[in-house]
Amino acid sequence: MEDLIAEELEVDFNQGLDIRLLNEENLDYLKRVRVKELRFAFDDMAYERAVREGIELLLANGLGSRKLSFYFLHGLAEDMCVERVKILASYNVEVYLM
After folding, report:
1. CA–CA dist 32, 83 (Å, integer)
2. Where in the sequence is the domain holding 93, given as residue range(s)?
3. Which residues pair with 39 in a beta bridge?
4. What distance in Å separates the CA atoms of residue 66 and residue 58, rounded to the nearest whole number?
């Protein structure tokens, strides 16, 4: 990652990042790397706390909500899908239905 930052190469994490692994150290890398959009996933309500904490950490550190997007797996219980959409909408992040 240091090489990408040093060379000022633009990175596209199109496979999505695991927001459960977000911490201060790798947040520092994400803030310094050239990226248009950070992609994560929210496929299960079991990850709600990690998703909320991750989004709040990113926003508190200057990564605006328009720079954040979430892959969204549907086809599960409808009420859980609706709840996940509401959570993501409350942060004004992009949602990609899959």
Report:
1. 33
2. 2-97
3. 69
4. 11
User: Model confidence at 39, in pLDDT bands (50, 70, 90)?
Assistant: very high
Could you identify the residue written with the tokens 């004004």?
92
For residue 23 the two structure tokens come to: 């911490």
Q: Where are the alpha helices (DSSP H) in 1-98?
A: 2-6, 24-32, 48-60, 78-90
Question: Tens of pLDDT along 60-70?
Answer: 998 887 789 99
**Overall domain count for the chain:** 1
Phi and psi at 26, nearest 5°, equal -75, -20
Q: How far apart are CA 58 and CA 68, in angstroms?
A: 9
Structure tokens at 12: 């596209």
